[in-house]
Amino acid sequence: MTSASDTPIIQTFGLGKRYRKTTAVDGISFQVEAGQVFGFLGPNGAGKTTTIGLLLGIITPTAGRFELFGGATAAELHAARQRIGATLETPNFYPYLSGRDNLRIVANVKGRDGAEIDRVLDLVGLRRRARQKFKAYSLGMKQRLALAATMLGDPELIILDEPANGLDPEGMREIREIIRDLGERGKTIFLSSHLLSEVERTCTHVAIIQNGRIVRQDSVADVTSHGVAGLRAADLEGLAAAVREYPAARWASRRGDRLVVELTDGDLSGLNAWLAGRGIHLSHLALEARSLEDVFMEATGATPANRPADPGTQPGRSAPGDHRMGEVP
Amino acid sequence: MIAAAFRGEMRKLWKRPATWVTLGLFGLITLTDLVGPYRDARKNPDAPFLLPDAWSQILGEEITVGFIFSSVLVILLVAAEFSWRTARQNVIDGLSKTQWYSAKLLLLPFLTALFLALRVVVGGLLALAGTDLSAGATLFGTVQLSALGGMFLTGLGYCSLALFAALAIRSSGPAMALWFAWFAFGERLVVGGVGKVFEGLRPVLRWAPVMTFDRLRDYIQYDPEALRKVAEWAVENEQPVPELEALGPAIAGSIGWIAGLTLLGWLWYRRRNL
C-alpha cells in the first residue's frame, strides 16, 4: 500500500452490487483525492449507502473493485480502514450506554485513550451531556455523537452518510461548520447526502448517483459554472416553445415569470439574435448563477415530486411555484 | 485487538441491566433453593448440609436455570447488535469480522463460568457455615472439579446454541423464542418424530445437541461414592438402579456440538452482509 500524496484516497473501478433481481450499484467508477470534501449526491435509493457499505467492507461487491489509500488486497483494505472514521445511515450506538461509554467502546477498538474522547466531545459540543444515556439523546445529539466517534483516532478520511438527516436548521448549521472545519484542517471527507444545499455549501467536489450509476462528477465550481441564462418576455409560453428549438439550449425551466435556460455555448447574444429572428423580443436577458439543484435536475431528470429534499434557499433555486419544462433538444 | 474487543464486551455486559437482573434472579433462586436444606440441617442433625457432601445439592439440577439465564444474555448481547446496527458499526470502526466474532465467542465461557461460580459461591458459603473446618475433610476435591467441568460443558453447549440462534435470527425476541422452544420441547419433538419414521436413526438421534449436553449435568455420575449409595438405596427399596453412561462419549459429543454450532454461526455471520 502506498501513501504518496498523489495516490487517490478512494478509487473505484466498475464497482457493483447486485441483490438477486435488483442492481443497487451498477459499475461505478470515481476517485476521491486527498484533501477533497467530496459530496456523494443522489435521491433516496440511488445507491449511496450501498456504495459506502462496499467501501467500508460490510457489503461484498458483486462486480468491479476499489482501492483505499492505494491498497486493494483484503489485508491492505483492513489496514486502510484503520485510517478511516465513518458512520453509515443513522448513528449506530448502544442505547443503554452513555455517550461517553459509547465513545469508550469505539476508542478501545481504535486504541485511543480518555483524553481523546474529551477532545472529540468538545469538538461536537457534547461534553456536558456525555454522561447521559444515548437513548435519551435528541436526534441532533445522536448525529453529533456519531461525528465525534468518526473523529476518534484523528482519521485521514472521514466518511459521513447523511450526517444532517433529521436535523433542524440550527443542527444542520452546526454539522456543516464541523465538516467545513475538518475540511480546512486538510481531512479528506466523503459526504453522502440528498440535501443539495448542504453539499453545495460544504463540498469541493461532487458526484451524482442515480439508479446505481454515476451520472455526473466534477468539482462543485465546475458543475455550477456553466452558462445559465434568465429570460423574460411578454409571451412566456411562446418564448419557451422557441427556446426548445434553439440548438445550444440543453434544458429550460420556468421560474416564476421568467425562463431559465442552460446554454452549451454560453453565448447570450447568439440566443438573443436567434429569438429576435423569430419575432420574440426579450425584456430581460442575463447570465444566472447555476445551483447544484439545477445540475442535479439536469443530470437525473428529477421532477419536483422525486427530487431530493432541500430546505435551504439559494439564488437561482427553484421556488414552490416553479414549473420545469423538461429538456430542450 | 481481540482483547480490546473483549474489554468492550465486558463494558457492555457490566452496563446492561439484563446482566444484573439475571444474576440477581439466579442468586435469589439459588438462595431459596439452598436455604431449605441449610435450615433443616440446623434443626435436624440427621440431615446435614455440610461440605463436601452438600455439593450434590449445590450442583444439582437447578444449575440449569443459571445456564438458561446465561444463554438469554448471550442472545441479548449478540442479536441486539444487529437491531442496533452496532455489529456493522464495530466493523466500520476497525474490528475485523473475525475479531468481532472472537470477542462474542469469549463471552460464552465467561458467562457460563459466571453463573456456575455464583451457584458455587452462594451454595458453598451456606454449606461452609455449618462445616467443621477443624475435621480436616477435603471440602472441594477432584470429584467436584470433574462435576464442575462437565457442567461447564453443559452450560457452554446451551450458550453456543443461543449464539447460533442469535446469529441466525439477528433479533433478540424471536431468537430467544426459537432457542427456548428448541430447548424446552422442539428437540424432543423433532427427535421423536424423526425416530418414528426412521427407527434405525434412533441411536443417532439420542445425540441431538441438548440431549448430549444434558448427559454431563448429573452430579452423581462424577461421585462414585454417591452413586454407590444411590444404587444401594435403590436395591433396598426395590427401585431401578440408575444406569449411567460413560462420560467420555458425552464429553466428546458435547465438544463436537459446541465446535459445530460455533463454526456454523461463524460461517452464517461471515456470509451475510452486516
Order of helices and strands of chain B: HHHHHHHHHHHH
Give the ordered list of helices and strands of chain A: EEEEHEHEHHHEHEHEEHEHEEHEHE
* Proportion of residues in helical segments of chain B: over 70%
**Largest sheet composition of chain A:** 6 strands, mixed
Distance between the termini of chain A: 47 Å
> Quick one: biggest sheet of chain B?
none
Work out the helicity level of chain A.
25-40%
* Uncertain stretches of 5 or more adjacent residues of chain B: none
Mean pLDDT of chain A: 83
Characteristics:
heterodimer; A: 329 residues; 32% helix; elongated; B: 274 residues; mainly alpha
Short description:
The complex is a heterodimer of chains A (329) and B (274). With 329 residues, chain A is of the alpha/beta class. Chain A has 11 helices and 15 strands.
Describe the protein's topology.
The complex is a heterodimer of chains A (329) and B (274).
Chain A: E1 10-19, E2 22-28, E3 31-32, E4 37-41, H1 48-55, E5 63-68, H2 74-81, E6 84-87, H3 99-110, H4 114-123, H5 139-151, E7 157-161, H6 169-184, E8 188-193, H7 196-202, E9 205-210, E10 213-219, H8 220-223, E11 228-232, H9 236-243, E12 249-255, E13 258-263, H10 268-276, E14 284-288, H11 292-300, E15 323-327
Parallel strand pairs in A: 4-8, 4-9, 6-7, 7-8
Antiparallel strand pairs in A: 1-2, 1-3, 1-5, 9-10, 11-13, 11-14, 12-13, 12-15
Chain B: H1 2-15, H2 17-43, H3 55-58, H4 63-83, H5 86-92, H6 97-130, H7 142-169, H8 172-197, H9 202-205, H10 209-214, H11 224-236, H12 247-271
Helix pairs in contact in B: 1-6, 2-4, 2-6, 4-6, 4-7, 6-7, 6-12, 7-8, 7-12
